[in-house]
Amino acid sequence: MSMFLDTAKIKVKAGNGGDGMVAFRREKYVPNGGPWGGDGGRGGNVVFVVDEGLRTLMDFRYNRHFKAQSGEKGMTKGMHGRGAEDLIVHVPQGTTVRDAETGKVLTDLIENGQEFIVARGGRGGRGNIRFATPKNPAPEISENGEPGQERELQLELKILADVGLVGFPSVGKSTLLSVITSAKPKIGAYHFTTIVPNLGMVRTQSGESFAVADLPGLIEGASQGVGLGTQFLRHIERTRVILHVIDMSASEGRDPYEDYLAINKELESYNLRLMERPQIIVANKMDMPESAENLKIFKEKLAANYDEFDELPQIFPISSLTKQGLSTLLDATAELLDKTPEFLLYDESEMEEEAYYGFDEDTPAFEISRADDAAWVLSGDKLEKLFTMTNFDREEAVMKFARQLRGMGVDEALRARGAKDGDLVRIGKFEFEFVD
């Protein structure tokens, strides 16, 4: 079984804020002591941190739920509860994080040590010391802690490499990687020997260095999932230069030029923007007797299909076996990398806007629907948050919640929808009677 994992779906839950406390001063020689309950502590965030020591998402194969600690409850003497520590989750370089529900990209983590808060902890609830007023100097009101953010995330690893090797199976990509780098990929005389991406560092004779990724062989229909399909096509997206390796000996009976067209078609079908990346054609296996004639025919076909104003891709004849032409190929690749900028992986339409943790003025504070048992159901983020943070063990807090509902216009809205005295109203699992 392959121990490489490049996609994972996980759930994260930030910590809830600690509940505020209701307490009163009880000190000797201090008459008429006032409120003395402190606020709850902040819940912990869930934070992704890039760790350059990780290479795959294997850590998320069996551990798919990440939950941060909640804040401590408020204490007497006006003391705040302790805030919870953030939950740190290490991810490899090149991890893209998406919201699984919306599909929007939250962040693209590519720098070692880079941090991103994927779920924010709730603030602590206020203690009764916060609710004291001249009219009510001894309130028996406190808030529950704010719920922590909870979401489902899709993680996708796209390895960091400057150059990607693409081509049909058994054209010699793994052999090429093994002779130009210190990588030791599995090499075999059968298709799909490479089943996971292999990465190696190249150092040219002039001192230039760059990372090369050998990607599993593509076949026709790969962009639709045939063969290893899109499972590894994503890893090409970060590369700046593509080395298109072709078996110029046609040892498997395929036409080299048709191979070239077929692979480019799959790249284009998967992501049109991949065709923006400059390509170098690597004519491999030139030590074979038929290769020179095939290369001549290949160049003629290639030139015939390019306009006079289009620049033909560079073609480098090599032999990975005899190491013929490798230094020239590597120098040209390094030179092309120097003048090729990085490509933007995601445009603004794919990225989620910077998170806003308040309430949008345009969003209705609540919605009213009717349940099967004829009960009125109240829902909405703002209303549900007020409900969650209300301490229903205290009568004053319940009355405060009722006033908040009235201030939001819930009474008038229910009345306008036809609610009558004694009708059942439900918020989540909490039920009460409508009083007209």
Automatic annotation (TrEMBL):
InterPro entries: G_OBG, GTP-bd, GTP-bd_Obg/CgtA, GTP-bd_prot_GTP1/OBG_C_sf, GTP1-OBG_CS, GTP1_OBG_dom, GTP1_OBG_dom_sf, OBG_GTPase. Mg(2+) binds at residues 174, 194. GO terms for cellular component: cytoplasm. Residues 161-338 form the OBG-type G domain. Residues 2-160 form the Obg domain. Its cofactor is Mg(2+). Coiled coil: none annotated. One of its GO terms (molecular function) is GTPase activity. GTP binds at residues 167-174, 192-196, 214-217, 284-287, 319-321. Its EC number is 3.6.5.-. Keywords: Cytoplasm, GTP-binding, Hydrolase, Magnesium, Metal-binding, Nucleotide-binding. The keyword Cytoplasm applies. It is found in: Cytoplasm. Residues 128-147 are annotated as: Disordered. It holds the Pfam family MMR_HSR1. Residues 358-436 form the OCT domain. GO terms for biological process: ribosome biogenesis. It comes from the Bacteria. Monomer. Belongs to the TRAFAC class OBG-HflX-like GTPase superfamily. OBG GTPase family. An essential GTPase which binds GTP, GDP and possibly (p)ppGpp with moderate affinity, with high nucleotide exchange rates and a fairly low GTP hydrolysis rate. Plays a role in control of the cell cycle, stress response, ribosome biogenesis and in those bacteria that undergo differentiation, in morphogenesis control. This is GTPase Obg. The lineage of its organism: Bacteria, Bacillati, Bacillota, Bacilli, Lactobacillales. The gene is obg.
